[in-house]
Specification:
mainly alpha, two-stranded antiparallel sheet, electron transfer activity, cell membrane, transport, 6% strand, electron transport
């Protein structure tokens, strides 16, 4: 058990920093892989060149996003053995196999078909290439499936037995572990968020180019597809989020009480607080602005439903209310803006101004990073709201950390901050450069460098020769 509170705080900050960076890229690549599959499928079905042009345009961006997601994920996973070795030892028999399944199924599937997807269009034929694209899209979903199963088990653990040495051991079946009570809700909510995040980025890029050239056919197509997705998925995400919140209310009430700012119990119906300043020391919500009874209507489905507040929970069992309270409102506020964008786009589509409305285009452009902010805010709400536990109700975060000194954790955190901003900042800058370039007809495909020097097993082959030509003789022998 780590007794130095400063080292524990730095270890938590380090994991939060690295996982926040990592989460951005899968949230984009999951949706973008499916978008690429849709574009290629529409191209095969209709034969319209605009779809394959957009496919090639976004394929370059996907390649960079996917690479950064893999690299940031590998780095993040090492912290289980460095900063959280006690957690790895005790929970490893349960979470280790699940993470291995992610590698054996999703990662191998993606790795097997990614090269064909990126460089194989002219080598394997259109239909087989489409199969490769679909397999990569399925692989991203399977990866989310296993990772979210692990994370959900930490929130709602079940299907395990405790070993004599304090380890969590799998019970008679893996199914209760994999399909734990919060997993279906968290999976649907997260994957839907990834699709919505991608739609906002694609819509923002389309809006950017429409503001410069309203006649750009490719910008029109991508913007129209993105706005359809926003209009359809944003309302669905609100419904899914509500169901996920009710599931959390059933299994993690302190988290929901922190989200809603309910320090005090409300025996005759709780208000829905829209604004307030959480005051943990005094255990109250200062400057509270709320709608009477609506909180109970949401949580208990009746206006006079009693809600027991944080005053019924020991102080050492409560999460940091201020962080959870505000991150939840950031997520919900952005979700409502996404819904508004979808509705405005439907209105503009009905009025035949979808491609000519500067207000809509500027709105979409401003909302393009909103999905990333919302998923990070949602992650903060979920993970900070689980505190003080890492395995909810069974293992505290302070009990899970490695016995490291503060300087060791501080130095690794500083190194991560510098390297991450340098490497991933450069990658993000390059992605933005690609997005700034408008898509056009006959968008070039990705090409592998067959003519570049390639070193394999200590050998460097000579330059590629044209078929049927003899290699040149050494000088003096011609």
């Amino acid at each position: 058990m780590l007794t130095d509170p400063t080292a524990l705080l730095l270890a938590r900050l380090q994991f939060a920093f690295t996982v926040s960076f990592h989460f951005i890229f899968p949230a984009f690549s999951i949706g973008l892989a499916s978008y690429l599959a849709v574009l290629e499928g529409l191209w095969l079905k209709t034969g319209r060149a605009v779809y394959i042009d957009l496919f090639r345009y976004w394929l370059k961006i996907f390649a960079i996003v996917f690479a950064m997601g893999v690299v940031s994920g590998i780095v993040m996973s090492y912290q289980f053995g460095t900063n959280w070795s006690v957690f790895s030892d005790r929970a490893g028999p349960v979470i280790g196999p699940l993470m291995a399944y992610e590698v054996l199924t999703a990662f191998f599937l993606e790795a097997g078909f990614l090269g064909v997807m990126l460089f194989g269009m002219e080598r394997v034929g259109k239909k087989l290439h489409f199969v490769a694209t679909v397999m990569v899209a399925i692989g991203t979903f399977i990866s989310a499936f296993w990772i979210l199963s692990v994370n959900s088990w930490m929130h709602t653990p079940q299907g395990f037995v405790m070993g004599d040495n304090g380890q969590f051991l799998p019970g008679e079946s893996w199914l209760p572990i994999i399909f734990n009570p919060s997993f279906p809700f968290r999976l649907v909510h997260t994957v839907t968020a990834a699709y919505l995040t991608t739609a906002l980025v694609v819509g923002g890029v389309g809006a950017w180019h429409l503001l410069k050239d309203r006649a750009n056919m490719h910008a029109r197509k991508m913007f129209s597809m993105a706005m359809w997705m926003a209009a359809l998925v944003a309302p669905l995400q609100i419904v899914v989020g509500d169901l996920h919140g009710l599931n959390t209310w059933e299994h993690q009430r302190p988290k929901v009480l922190a989200m809603e700012g309910h320090y005090e119990s409300h025996p005759d119906g709780a208000p829905l607080y829209l604004f307030g300043i959480p005051n943990d020391r005094e255990q109250r919500l200062d400057y509270a602005v709320g709608i009477p009874k609506v909180g109970s209507l949401i949580l208990e489905h009746r206006l006079d439903g009693p809600v027991a507040g944080l005053d019924t929970i020991p102080d050492d069992e409560q999460p940091p209310v201020a962080v959870v309270f505000w991150s939840f409102r950031i997520m919900v506020g952005l979700g409502l803006l996404m819904l508004a964008l979808g509705m405005v786009s439907l209105w503009a589509r009905w009025r035949k101004t979808l491609y000519t409305s500067p207000f809509l285009h500027r709105f979409a452009l401003a909302m393009s990073p909103a999905g990333f902010v919302a998923v990070i805010a949602g992650w903060v709400t979920t993970e900070v709201g689980r505190q003080p536990y890492v395995v909810y109700g069974l293992m505290r975060t302070a009990e899970a950390a490695s016995p490291l000194a503060t300087p060791a954790v501080a130095s690794s955190l500083a190194a991560f901050v510098v390297i991450y901003f340098a490497v991933f900042g450069t990658g993000t800058w390059y992605i933005l450069r690609l997005m700034r370039t408008p898509p056009h007809t006959h968008e070039p495909d990705l090409k592998d460098s067959l003519d570049a020097p390639i070193r394999t097993a200590g050998t460097t082959p000579g330059p590629t020769q044209n078929p049927g030509h003899e290699p040149p003789l050494p000088k003096g022998q011609d």
